[in-house]
Write a structure and sequence with these properties.
The protein is mainly α. It has helices at residues 6-15, 20-40, 43-51, 69-83. The radius of gyration is 14 Å and the shape is elongated.
Length: 88
């Protein structure tokens, strides 16, 4: 999700903070997870949906799209359609 190597991640832990881009990715993921839990009304179902390929998203996992704002908006859009009764 962060697109950093284990060595870089260890360095970030020692420094005590992530870069601005890394922080944005973490925040987007947390927001989408919260939204998915709201839509599916269960954390396990939300996590399952985020980790399985979705045809409406080009047959990729919703989680794989959260590294960009555009991808997160697409995932959020699909969650909105599901919330309104259209299962994709």
């Amino acid at each position: 999700m962060l697109h950093v190597s284990p060595v870089t991640l260890a360095r970030r832990r020692r420094r005590g903070f992530l870069t601005t881009d890394e922080s944005a990715r973490v925040m987007r993921t947390a927001q989408i997870l919260e939204r998915a839990i709201e839509v599916f009304e269960a954390e396990d179902m939300a996590v399952d949906w985020l980790n399985h390929c979705n045809l409406a998203l080009g047959d990729v996992t919703p989680l794989s799209l959260l590294d960009t704002e555009f991808g997160a908006n697409e995932v959020n859009r699909i969650l909105g359609t599901i919330e309104h009764g259209v299962f994709v």
